[in-house]
Amino acid sequence: MAGREDHELDGVTLLGNQGTSYLYDYTPSVLEAFDNKHQGRDYWVTFNCPEFTSLCPKTGQPDFATITIRYIPDVKMVESKSLKLYLFSFRNHGDFHEDCMNIIMDDLIRLMNPRYIEVQGVFTPRGGISIDPYCNWGRPETKYEQMAEFRLMRHEMQ
């Protein structure tokens, strides 16, 4: 099986770049995408980020989480190094857990327009309680919209 041609990675500038600068403020513009070579089939792509950090908008204290992103790509896919840098850019971003998960999902929808996507955060407890938001989206007027409704209605607590 052949690898990717250079022109298939047009727009991917961070992968292999040794001069990476880490952004400490929310920066969705760092996200990069590349073409899906398997557009004719449905398949899952899953990312796990066990070291996500954001800030409480009221206290300024850090919140830690494991973020799981699952999606079914269509034409575009998110490049993993850019996703890592993007998630890292939340380090000094002050927002509630639920907002962070929805922001991440919205930014990835804008970048890729996937068939289906879901984002979940499992946050470390603070004050004796944890918050684990889950959000999802399926392309409107397709089976993926129905899939999103099905998965949301059957989403179980962990």
Structure description:
This protein is an alpha+beta fold and 158 residues long. It has a single domain, classed as GTP Cyclohydrolase I, domain 2 (2-Layer Sandwich). It contains three helices and six strands, in the order ββββααββα. The protein has helices at 80-88, 97-112, 143-153; strands spanning 33-35, 45-55, 62-72, 76-78, 116-123, 134-138. The protein has a four-stranded antiparallel β-sheet. A two-stranded antiparallel ribbon has the order 1-4. The longest helix is centred in the middle third of the chain and has 16 residues, at 97-112. The protein is flat, with a radius of gyration of 16 Å.
Kindly identify the CATH topology. GTP Cyclohydrolase I, domain 2
Number of strands: 6
Walk across the major sheet and give the strand order. 2-3-5-6
What is the SS-derived class? alpha+beta
SSE succession? EEEEHHEEH
**Biggest sheet character:** 4 strands, antiparallel
The general outline is flat
**Proportion of beta-strand residues:** 25-35%
- Termini separation comes to 40 Å
Q: Count of DSSP helices?
A: 3
Spans of at least 5 consecutive residues whose pLDDT stays below 50 are none
Which CATH top level class fits?
Alpha Beta
Q: What is Rg?
A: 16 Å
Topology (SSEs and partners):
Layout: E1 33-35, E2 45-55, E3 62-72, E4 76-78, H1 80-88, H2 97-112, E5 116-123, E6 134-138, H3 143-153
Antiparallel strand pairs: 1-4, 2-3, 3-5, 5-6
Pathway: tRNA modification; tRNA-queuosine biosynthesis
Subcellular location: Cytoplasm
Binding site for substrate: 78-80, 97-98
